[in-house]
Design goal:
Elements: E1 39-42, H1 49-61, H2 70-73, H3 84-92, E2 99-102, E3 116-121, H4 124-136, H5 140-150, H6 162-171, H7 188-195, E4 203-207, H8 208-213, H9 215-225, H10 235-241, H11 244-249, H12 251-254, H13 278-281, H14 284-297, H15 300-308
Parallel strand pairs: 1-2, 1-3, 3-4
């Protein structure tokens, strides 16, 4: 059943669930020491997470030359791969405004009034096709680690045909209360948890398609939301560094988990954007399944935004 939006943004988010699966554990947030001004980049998997992290980092540091590779600078806090205390110590040692990555729904995260939560959405069908690429590019070591955590048979691989994988992803979750997102994590439920509190000033919404259509404008909008003044002398260089091609050219620094050997090929993480490819990349049967069930997973305004960005519906509409 879809959560109601009416009046929800008059409340504050509460941490009511723990998310533990083959990839991460939201209980790790108990080790995090919050600091005023923290930026929490919270997105569903394959919805522009790395892009959003890069934009935030460029705005905070006002230079394409970041103090650390993005994959190290803005770590995924929930990820099992590194001990939580070590990752917390890494963030504690950063003397600048911190940018933390998560794929946890808002009802599994701590909420702080003086942090900013930056959420990026994407058409779910494009996000799914990008996930198929993602699963195919995992390094053998990453697959082996996930296999060990879940007792999957040795040599297990997820289906490589999008039409075989789509029903599994679209109708199964990693937790009993989730109905989508297996194996990477939920998209619809996660989005709705943030959408229900979209009236809060410290929850900011970006959309993948809006970034594609107007990167400069969306970066300016985010800069204002983060309280960072635009330096016009530096601005063209920041926008250029945030472009897809620029990030791909520095894949060893920008691909998430590159410092952990996450990928078979770091550059392939940025292989292509997949925007709109669902029209030809999914079968008529799977598109019909989506059309039938997607409206039951989130509210109508939320789905309109997911599929079309701010041109379809502005999240900050009262």
């Amino acid at each position: 059943m879809m959560p109601a939006h009416d009046g929800a943004d008059m409340r504050k988010p509460e941490r009511t669930h723990t998310y533990t699966d083959m990839i991460g554990d939201s209980a790790r947030w108990d080790e995090f020491h919050p600091r005023k001004g923290d930026i929490i980049v919270a997105t569903p998997p394959k919805c522009g997470t790395t892009w959003t992290q890069m934009i935030c980092a460029l705005l905070v540091h006002q230079s394409p030359g970041l103090p650390q590779p993005l994959t190290v600078l803005s770590r995924w806090f929930d990820r099992h791969s590194e001990p939580a205390k070590e990752v917390a110590a890494h963030f504690d040692a950063q003397p600048f405004r911190r940018i933390v990555k998560t794929h946890t729904p808002l009802d599994g995260l701590p909420y702080w009034d003086d942090a900013t939560y930056v959420f990026c959405g994407r058409d779910p069908r494009d996000a799914f096709l990008s996930l198929v690429d993602h699963l195919g590019n995992l390094s053998p070591e990453t697959v082996a680690e996930a296999t060990r955590r879940t007792n999957l048979p040795p040599g297990f691989r997820f289906p490589t045909d999008p039409d075989d994988m789509f029903p599994l992803w679209f109708t199964h979750g990693n937790q009993p209360w989730l109905e989508d997102g297996f194996p990477a994590g939920p998209l619809f439920y996660l989005t709705q948890t943030f959408w229900d509190f979209r009236g809060l000033d410290n929850i900011v919404f970006l959309h993948y398609q809006d970034l594609v259509d107007d990167l400069d404008g969306e970066m300016r909008r985010l800069s204002a939301a983060l309280g960072i003044a635009v330096d016009e002398t530096r601005w063209p260089g920041l926008v250029q560094a945030a472009r897809f091609e620029s990030m791909r050219d520095r894949a060893s620094d920008t691909a998430p988990g590159a410092h952990l050997g996450e990928w078979a090929d770091n550059t392939s993480f940025f292989r292509k954007a997949r925007s709109g490819e669902w029209r030809t990349g999914l079968s008529a049967e799977n598109l019909a399944l989506y059309a039938r069930l997607a409206p039951r997973k989130v509210t109508a305004d939320c789905l309109a935004w997911l599929e079309g960005g701010r041109k379809a519906f502005d999240p900050k509409t009262p």
